[in-house]
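Q: Can I see a sequence and its folded structure?
A: Here is a first one.
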Amino acid sequence: MLSTPVSDLKGVGCKISQAFKKAGINTVADLINWLPYRHEDFSSVSKISNLKPGKVTILAKCESIETKQVRRGLKITTAVLSDGDSKVRAVWFNQPYRSTQLLTDKLFLFSGSFEFNYNRYQITNPSVEMPKKFGSNEPNNFLEPVYHSIKGINPRQLRRFIESVRPTITMMQEIMPQFILKKYGLISRSESYLYMHFPKSRDEIILAKNRLAFDELFEILLASQLNKQANTRLKSRSIKFDQLAVANFVKSLPFSLTNAQRRVLWQIIQDFESSTPMNRLLQGDVGSGKTVVAGSAAYICAHAGLQSAIMVPTEILALQHAETLQKLLSPFGVKMVLLTGSVKGVKRKCLLENIANGEADVIIGTHALIQKTVVYKNLGFVVVDEQHRFGVKQRQELLAKSSLMPHLLAMTATPIPRSLQLTVFGELDISTIDELPSGRKPIKTQIWAPTNTANLYDSVEIEISKGRQVYIICSLIDDNPENDTKSVEIEYRKLRSTIFNHRRVAMLHGKMKPDEKDKIMNDFSAHKIDILISTTVVEVGVNVPNATIMIIENADKFGLSQLHQLRGRVGRGEYQSYCHLIMSDHSKPSQRLREIEKSNDGFHLAEVDLKLRGPGEIYGKSQHGTLDLRIASISDTKMVERVQLAVRDFINSGEDLLQYKQLSKRVQKYQRLTNLN
């Protein structure tokens, strides 16, 4: 049975059961879904003397082996392997058990990457198997599944447990409609899992991956289309376009809108005229002018007698938006109010009355906007800034503040790859601001080795002498003896007492009280601080045009999108700005760091990030779950198009999704995950 606890399996004691639990494996179904991430091919064994760079398999003995602790958290095991004629070096990282495993006089099959590292050729992190597994003959067409490791369970044990549930796999029920399987030439669900765990050929692996990838995309795309259908049945207020009023407002702005801003504003105006609620996602790189577009749309609503609510993740950001929009809207008699947790007492009571009686036209705030005490008279437009930072439930609570569904504009500074737009956000209309305001200079980005920081700090001192300001980002708050990642508190004490003891240095992190954090950010904005040492809490923060240097410690440990977001804290004024990425060690910089070093284009970086990390890490965790794509690739446009056709076939067939219980459950999960309404 799929629901059987793994603790009931033969050989699973208390320790192994706990190890499974930590890995998220609680049932037989979870174990079956622990799919191999690759398959080792032991069918082609090479002589050591014939090895060429790339994937290799050799049959050899271990002549000598040793394990050394290189630094905290890193042990390197080095062995000399011999096939009788020649020898080769093998290296494993954090696999000290190899010393015990290989200290015998037996032959083993080693399969790994033969490459040039540290001035010599070696096999890196090879997997190890006993030849007896293949019978008396040498291996022939044998494929070994390789699984992500589970602490406390060795690979051989894991394969044995998976082998024990093989009968359950053969009896797995189908979740997909038969007519879809037949039309698109898909193997059964049970076959796909059997071929992944126990393949007899590469062709079987291809068939299995094709079926499982199809399933993953089908669930997401069907959820997206069902959301889109549901949205068309909702009703909202139609807001008529007053061309003269909008033209006068745009002319009054202290700057010219970019062509991209004008295009997006026109898309919103057209949505407003419909009685179906707008469900639009506005994406634009850091500093591209999304707030001005949202403010212009709020003016159109106020002119039509409707209220707008703009919800942002932090009080600092709410204050910044309020200051920006107050200047733009007040000349036209639009009353804007700021509602946050720090507004209390009589002032709060007055504010709530103004919102309830309709005197307040535009309400900007944090989560305070969705509290029960906040009642809107005629809410017609909702803006959710940095939408990925709010859960689905929070957005729904704000939208429920109106008798008719308000028009929704969600905004994000994390550009979304086109392939994701077609799938996860397929039910949304997407607007893109793909150009920056004129006068902005591209940020110069450079990667630094940790030993070269003296030269870096010299350039920082020159910039501060010109009157500029600096961010230094660390991923930890406190020092952690378990690793060598730099912390805010250690860097703050070190820099303030040594190199920059003549400068105004402050620190900022998430454990501080909100009032304390606000004061520090306000002081930084007012240039009362030269260097701000912070965690990533400044990723979404105030606009400080005078800050021109962003230093990110241990940059190799950050995601690409997050690095780009942090870099976007500088380069917001007229001065040339710089981003310095400091490595954790002297390793070769990753492709991720090389990409951000050479490109300031957030949309290009988003595509790269999608390929490197997958959509679940980038877009899923901030909402209710993640995109569970382990086999499918959203960048595989041919597969996406194929599955889109299958989804259309299913919807047109009139079949009831509820009769497919497992499929229905998965689709409903994705409906909750991706739906903005």
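Q: Show me another, different protein.
A: A second, unrelated one:
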Amino acid sequence: METHRGVLYSRNGGAAASQPLAVSAALEILRAGGSFIDAGIALSAVISVIEPGASQLGGDAFLITHHAKTKENLAFNGSGEAGHSAVRSAFEDKIDHHGPRSSTVPGTVSAWFAAHERYGVLPMDVILAPAIRYAEEGFAATRDFVMRIQFFLKQFPERNFFEAMGIDTSLAIGDLVIQKDLAKTLKIIARDGRDGFYKGEIADLIVSGTNGWFNHEDLAKHQTRVEKPLTVDYKGYSVHGQPPPTQGMILMEELLLVEGDDVASLPEAKRIHLMVEAKKLAFLDRNEILADPEFIPVDVQRILSKEHIATRRAQIDMNKAWNGPETNLSEGSDTTYFIVADGQGNAVSWIQSVFHGFGSAFVPNGTGILLNNRATGFDLDEDSPNLIVPGKRPAHTLNAWTVTNPDGSLRFVGGTPGANIQVQSNFQLVTQLIDLGLNVQQSCEAPRWQHLNGDSSSVENGNGQLQIESRVGEEVIAELKALGHDVLVLPPYGHGSAVQLLEVMPNGTLAFGSDVRSDGLAAGI
């Protein structure tokens, strides 16, 4: 398979992300002697400055880390809880889409410090220096930056919060973007640590700026959860993903549903059909149980048990698409995914988001912090396991993954933005790498599909739509239609993903791939 980019090979570390300046920041920290986590925090902070439409300090972050020496894999849940005011009776028919009442406590900054406590080397003022520099001295607005602003204002002209961020909405490509308040906030975090964000001056501004939607206790008691990842065996490898309340369980179930099949030998249309059908069943299980496990029992082990997988696998008809109804899920549209690895074999799979584009579209004055609108991921149905409750975390679309060899050493790291499409894209990536033997850049660029939720307005029968890039070819598309799929053909690279991948080769060399569907790149040292 020909690719537009080559694989990036490195022995001493590297990074892959959707923004070149953020990749450069990660390399800067690695060259300064920083760890993979130091470089990851630097990348996270820089991308929060220069891609606020997708992720920012007011958002959430999820990490899967691999520590080479101990072979330890950890899942960091950097999502925030609903505040003390977030009760069912606070809303009428739906949760606010914008404004402070759409927000949960920001979790990204806490995740920085939780990861740094375990694997950090450099001090936080050094790590955050590139982000502070871009916020204080400015960066050149990219085409994507300008288009995101224009697109948002076209949809929500009454929601011009950009002035509170110090951003001129009339800017053109290449214009300098300076965010003084955000620079000040980053400096306070660099000086005072985690408490500099969740207590003190910044916390005061968040509490007063949200009219008490959050109080000081909401912020002060927030903690990043650090736990073992969900892990399943897949064809001799161990795949590690995010536990609840994220929907990493879907990826695990999808893989188990096809593990007994010789995926590589199937004709392409049949392989896609099998995987789409597995996706549908895994989402049904997600809809039934996914919630915050500290509030509601979430029996993932039952879903991933051999008995349940066998029952679900028997429901897949290889000759006909199942078009039963699927519950509509709240989907965020903007997310950032990236990978950082160092020369010692340590790596992080990192995803962060403000949920929908520009999150809550709300910035507490004087902070430069764009709050998320993750509270819209809750339900108002009293019978839902995902009912909004103070202190509870909503079900999340965000998930990142790693794959280890039988001896516990790292083999693959990967992920992508894409809301509910994430676990579908990641499903394709893992099978392409393990079953089909594609290299990381080939997998980044391979034709991709996505199956949308059941109530898509573009589907007359309400049973979902299979969208697939035209590069699969007319014959494959015709076969999928014959199997009963409602197919919408996308442009050749029209899928909404931005994949980043890493393979640790048997000789220790790092091989990075980066999706041509985004502006990013992979680079090493």
